[in-house]
Amino acid sequence: MPRRRALALLCSIPIAGLPALALAPHAQAASSSVVIAQAFGGGGNSGAPYAADFVELYNRSGATVDLTGWKLQYWSATGTSATSTALSGSIDAGHHFLIKEADGSNTAAAALPTPDATGAIAMSATAGRVAIVDASGTTVDLLGYGSTASVSETSPAPAPSNTLADIRTSGCADTDNNATDFVTAAPAPNNSTSAIGQCGTTGGGGGTTPPPPPTGQDATIEQVQGAAHRSPLEGKAVKNVAGVVTATSTTGYWIQSTTPDDDPATSEGLFVFTKSAPSAKVGDAVTAAGTVSEYRPGGSSGTANLTTTELTNPTTAIVSSGDPLPAPVVIGKDRIAPQQTVKDGDPGDVETAGTFDPTKSAIDFDESLEGMRVELDDAVAVGPTNPSYGETPVVPGQNVTATRSARRAVVYGGYDQPNAMRLILDDSLLPAGSVPTANVGDVYEGSTIGVLDYSFGNFHLLATSAGTLKSAGLQRETTAAASKGQVAVATFNVENLAPSDPQTKFDRLAGQIVGNLKAPDIVALEEIQDNSGAKDDGTVDSTDTITKLIAAIKAAGGPSYQARWINPTNDTDGGQPGGNIRQVFIFRTDRGVSFTDIPGGDATTSTSVVGSWLGTRLSASPGRIDPTNGAWTASRKPLVGQFSYKGQKLFVIANHFNSKGGDDPLFGRFQQPLRSSETQRHNQATAVRGFVDSLLKADPLAKVIVLGDLNDFEFSQTADILVGSGRTALTDLPRTLPANERYTYDYEGNSQVLDHILISKGLQIPLPFSGPAYRYDVVHTNAEFSEQDSDHDPQVVRLQLWPSWLS
């Protein structure tokens, strides 16, 4: 795996949640090449045998390692700033490399052997941290020594002293645990002229023994992979694993068999994890040896992710160079994944499930191609490129039967419609910009080729070459303006809007509200942060955020909006820590809308329904619905407001239910995926539905609008609870759209509904000769575009209300 991205959350988010974040290279894995053999920080101190501090390296691989661009980094035991010594030259297989650092004041101490590199770092004699970093910035090896070292491989090495160094154990073993890999002993520095093949506590003497030959059983790539999600040889040493190198990364290389077996369930590709940049090149025929391992992204915090089979602690023998690469499997032509079945049946843990069938389950289909060269022809972007990570959800240009929108998105219309053919096109093996940025519907014409990998809930096509991007010309939609007799009500998640955001974000959001939404009369905004944004300083008021947005709307040619909201209690409503996101109503008063201010609403006071029939009103406006209910723990509380439009009362409830964080990913280890987060949303929907019931009990024709980011689908139980049944049932407007138009959000190539507007029957009575009682529109301005102002599309309903004298 490229190992360039780290888990940003302690959970995998299967359908909707936060975007992926940048990952560091794979750390904490045993080095197969250069290791730290000795470290001595007592140089020149009282009683020290040597006059200078030093770090000694050793090349445990079977090939020369080029040190160009490498460096040694040193931190104090708990420090956050590193000092560095630049390295150059190379280390031959089985050789040492001596790095001299600062001299001490004990001039009677002996000089070091001639160093291979010289720096001026004053190392601690008893506790510190040393790392060897290659030219790509990957940590090749790390030593934390002394009990106070805040970073180490598993546990710190024992504390050395003025007379003792930390020395790697005999044979330079690297188990990724500093505490067991190092012992304290008298320093015995070696340089590049020292005896080869000698390393560790017995490595000071002579001898010219080269690294030992690889051990283990002979195996083919297909035998290593097996017809399963985990290797049948896991934990075993293997050798003579033959293949041609098909791709390389900063941490290893992929090989593929040139003599494949006849079983399509066994992959013919394999990743060899060298930790640093490999010496093997694309087109090299090699035999590899190492330990068969399973790498799980996220480690113990990513238990819902699948593992990837790899060789660790490898040795590589290059047999020839310039060999032709195996032909890629053309997905969508040569082999077609099950279209809408991630995993057949309900096996639980697929790694221990008894059946593995690539013809029935897409997760098995992709696993059977793990590490192999694959090709997509005329790949279609079904989600926008995430420009921060160079990732684009795509499907093949052929044989896709999933529900498609008019804009070529794939619509997630049910739990049985997971778009199982999608892959994440990933540019991590190519120079930046090699894979053009795409919007939904754009096509990578021609062949896109790479190796198939897995990372954090998705199979990735790590491109080695990409097709030519042909734009579909996707345009941001614009809705119709409300007519004289209509009131327009919208919802818009503006994605953690804070005063610290650039003015361009405010201007572009304002442009959407004015230009694309045609300045609705009422807008429920979600994810408005407080005045200090994500700074966790106790600030809860959001006046600055709202004032800045309203000013931007006015500058964009829009009306003068007013706003109402309730400040939350600090750090109780979830979202970005310190941001205190909340819902906010903004409304315009130039078209007959006014807000009914009723004092008494605050963060912890529950708003109730007062009166009946025409006298029905809220006890507080704006107010919150049942804010102390456990359903709202660490989540946004609903904001309810009473409006008036030309004498008609409107009760508007703005929501932002809890996210899907913690749910199993669609392509995860556990099948069928558990949606653990929906329990809280069901409770939240029940609380809101109860409030709606109290309004409709007081006035069966009350004009009620429930809207916002519900973080759940139009076909979900959450939506069912809000809709209710019988005479008081609400209409969930996304359900009124054709199936291929039901989406407000795109998550990893699945276009889906997360944002809703629901209306009561009192808003569905058409006026004679005036057309429908309402017109509803999801306005696609963000979710399908690589350049976004928010990750959600806004939506608006234009309501035709009866005059007050007819009500």
Structural account:
There is one protein chain. The chain has 807 residues and is mainly β. It contains 7 helices and 44 strands. The protein has 4 domains: 34-185, Sandwich (Immunoglobulin-like), CATH 2.60.40.1260; 217-320, OB fold (Dihydrolipoamide Acetyltransferase, E2P); 329-470, OB fold (Dihydrolipoamide Acetyltransferase, E2P) (Beta Barrel), CATH 2.40.50; 486-806, Deoxyribonuclease I, Chain A (4-Layer Sandwich). The strands form 10 sheets. Strands 31, 34, 35, 36, 38, 39 and 42 form a 7-stranded mixed beta sheet that branches. Strands 8-7-2-1-11-12 form a 6-stranded mixed beta sheet. A 6-stranded mixed beta sheet has the order 29-30-28-27-44-43, with helices on one face. A hairpin with a 5-residue loop joins β9 and β10. It is globular, with a radius of gyration of 31 Å. Residues 1-29 and 203-210 have low confidence and may be disordered. Residues 25-147 form the LTD domain. GO terms for molecular function: catalytic activity. Pfam families: Exo_endo_phos_3, LTD.
Report how far the terminal alpha carbons are from each other.
66 Å
Average pLDDT metric: 91
Main beta-sheet strand count, sense and barrel state: 7 strands, mixed
Helix content: under 10%
The name of the CATH architecture of the largest domain is 4-Layer Sandwich
Oligomer: single chain
Number of strands: 44
Specify the structural class: mainly beta
